[in-house]
Please model this.
Amino acid sequence: MVHFVGAGPGAPDLITLRGAALLERADQVIYAGSLVNPALLTRCRADCRILNSAEMTLEQVLAAVEEAEAQGRTTVRLHTGDPSLYGAVREQMAALDERGIDYDVTPGVSSFCAAAAGLRAEYTLPGLSQSLIITRMAGRTPVPGRESVEALAQHGASMVLFLSAGMLEQLQAALLRGAYTADTPAAIVYKASWPEERCLRCTLSTLAETARAAQITKTALVLVGDFLGADFTRSRLYAPDFTTGFRKGADGI
Ligand code: SAH
Model:
C-alpha cells in the first residue's frame, strides 16, 4: 500500500493528524527533499527506510515502491503542501494503477494557504474578488497558451503564482498586460510557515525590485490583487440585517 501524503507548507505541526499517523507507521518514506521540512522525518520509526525523491527519477521511485510492496511493506510518498498542486502525483498514480498497487491520498495544507495566513489576508473579499486563480509562469514545464499569465490577468481576480519567483521581471510585465495596474497590491511570501518566513508587501510596479532587494529567487509565492489592499466591503453573511438558515436578521425574511 502506498499513501500519498501532503506534508503541509513547512512547519512540522502543519501536517494533518492523518498524515502524521501514516508517517509514524510507514516502513518506507519517499519525501520530496527539495521542499519538505526534514523535521517531519523525526516522526518516522527508527527502522523506516527514508529516501529523498529530489535525487531520484520517477522510475527509481517506482522501483523503491515495488521493492517494498514485494515485502508487504507500506510506503508513504511525502509531498510538499497539498499533493494535488504541482505535485507530479498523477503520473505516479497511473504507474501504480498499471502495476495493481493500491494507494490513497491524504491532503495537506498548501503553501498558498500558509502565505495568506502569513499575510493575514483573505483571498475572497466581497466587492473585490470572489475567485482565486492558482497558476505559474511557463518555465521548463510549458503552460497552455490560453492559460498564460497575461490571459488570466485579464480577470483582475485574486491570483497566486507558484514556481515563478525566479522570473519576476517577466511575471510583472505579464501581469501588467492584464487588468492589474502599477498600483495593484502584491506580495512575495518566502518559505511560508518556516522559521525563516518572510512576507514582503509591495505593488505590482515594485514586485521584481522588492524580491531582488531581499535576494529571493525561489521557495516563494507571488500574490497579487486588490485583496491585499486596505479597502473591502463587509460580508452579507454576518450583517445584522441578513437572515440565514441559522440566524434571523433585522430584514425579517
Ligand atoms: N504542492 C505544493 C506546491 C509544490 S510546487 C503546495 O501545495 O504548496 C513548489 C512551489 O511551491 C515553490 O516553487 C514555491 O513557489 C511554492 N512553495 C512551496 N512551499 C512554499 C512555502 N512554504 N512558501 C512559499 N512558497 C512555497
About this structure: The chain has a mean pLDDT of 96. The radius of gyration is 21 Å.
